[in-house]
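Dear colleagues,

For the upcoming journal club I promised to circulate an example of a predicted protein-ligand complex. I picked one with ribulose-5-phosphate because it came up in last month's discussion. The inputs are reproduced below in full, followed by the predicted structure.
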Amino acid sequence: MDKEAGKRLAAEQAATHVERGMTLGLGTGSTAKYFVEIMGARIKEGWTLRGIPTSEETSRQARAVGIELITPDETTIIDLAVDGADEADPQLNLIKGGGGALLREKIIASAARKFIVIADKSKRVVTLGAFPLPVEIDPFAWALTVKRLREVLFEQGYESPKLDLRAAEGAPIFSDGGNLIIDCALERIESPALLDKSLAGIPGVVETGLFCNIADLIIYGDADGVSIEPG
Ligand code: 5RP
């Protein structure tokens, strides 16, 4: 079974948590896309659902499949958020932001009554960090912020990590919120919550891709079906 089938299985399982009338946080990425597609099918069956997209990309897809979209300012209640992840550990800590939507994803996931992560099984790791940690920063004085990022990482035991400004064809990539993303190759993150707190304290850092104590459930899909953590 390929990864795509695992992603779809995980999305289908997450869909069993959706009830008619819910307001949903809609994640970003190739796995979240399957969930949005399934929600579109529910709408066609006559369900009422509202969605809050975490990116322009998801917004376009959700609109195309007929999901009514609202802005986060139109409600204080998000019943359920469903999103993918770049890595997830057994304590339900995540690295997210491979698709550059980490800030909006974190706001919506944290605000939701329940946050379910969907992923193919290859995303499960014992220790986070092989996937470079995305850190979203304000473009103002960005080089100074990166310098400080390096210093704080050094204090946290990372001697000379490779930090890359996310770019394509030589031009920086901006998030939907107009920020830059620095991808930090850290290899191993032993204390994700501590690192998240240290990085978030740097002026200029808007958000980190470490999601700690936010996920309620992770659904992995692979050839054996789905496995759910905590079990
Ligand atoms: C986007 C994300 C995605 O959820 C993450 O990159 C996983 O994407 P995919 O499902 O395509 O592997 O955090 O910012």
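Two points we might discuss: The chain is about 30% helix and 25% strand. The pocket of ribulose-5-phosphate is lined by residues 27-32, 83-86, 96-102, 105 (CB under 6 Å).

See you all on Thursday,
B. R.
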